[in-house]
Task: inverse folding
């Protein structure tokens, strides 16, 4: 949850097939890209993303940019270095996010050699958008890219199978739990951790309710 997690946890659909990531997100990111000095992220009503907004979030690289700029503004050069990418190619993605309101350009500052630098910060906008599944692939790609850099002993992973009859209750209670922690003020004194949530129909069991082959006469 692509606090700017372009995350899409909902009943804010109730944990729908549309992921919440956000850095997305405001991903995600997750997003929670609210200004750290403001404390608690502001709650806003969810709405459907416009075509331009959905296209902007349909990129794992852009979701990672949103996550990188959640807590502090970064220049295009700093973002490129963190992603190990060419600054010129990253600038295209940064401008796309600025144009669609997911990144905010802050006051110009002077670099170490007196150069003019523009820092960018995630706005948290993606947390409140429903992209109707457009970010499903990119949010997973962003997660895989990020967790791949984390040492194995620092990863906490688990899976479970859920009764279909318990799905709606699970979604509701999970959403309430996630919302509780998402809305808490940022603790800038502790190292943040990332949480990724994914739900899908189980594919490891026989599809008992799927139509079988036509009967032979």
Result:
């Amino acid at each position: 949850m692509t606090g700017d997690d372009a995350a899409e946890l909902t009943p804010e659909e109730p944990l729908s097939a549309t992921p919440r990531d956000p850095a997305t997100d405001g991903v995600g990111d997750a997003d929670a890209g609210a200004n750290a000095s403001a404390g608690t992220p502001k709650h806003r009503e969810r709405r459907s993303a416009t075509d331009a907004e959905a296209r902007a979030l349909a990129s794992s690289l852009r979701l990672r940019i949103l996550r990188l700029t959640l807590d502090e503004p970064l220049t295009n050069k700093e973002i490129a270095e963190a992603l190990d990418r060419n600054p010129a190619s990253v600038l295209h993605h940064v401008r796309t996010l600025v144009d669609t309101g997911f990144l905010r350009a802050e006051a110009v500052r002077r670099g170490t050699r007196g150069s003019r630098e523009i820092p960018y910060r995630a706005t948290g906008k993606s947390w409140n958008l429903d992209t109707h599944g457009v970010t499903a692939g990119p949010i997973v790609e962003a997660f895989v890219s990020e967790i791949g850099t984390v040492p194995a002993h620092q990863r906490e992973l688990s899976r479970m199978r859920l009764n279909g009859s318990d799905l709606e209750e699970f979604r509701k209670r999970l959403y309430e739990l996630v919302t509780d922690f998402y809305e808490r003020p940022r603790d800038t004194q502790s190292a943040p951790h990332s949480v990724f949530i994914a739900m899908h129909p189980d594919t490891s069991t026989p599809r008992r309710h799927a139509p079988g082959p036509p009967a032979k006469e």
User: Anything to note?
Assistant: Residues 1-41 have pLDDT under 50 and may be disordered.
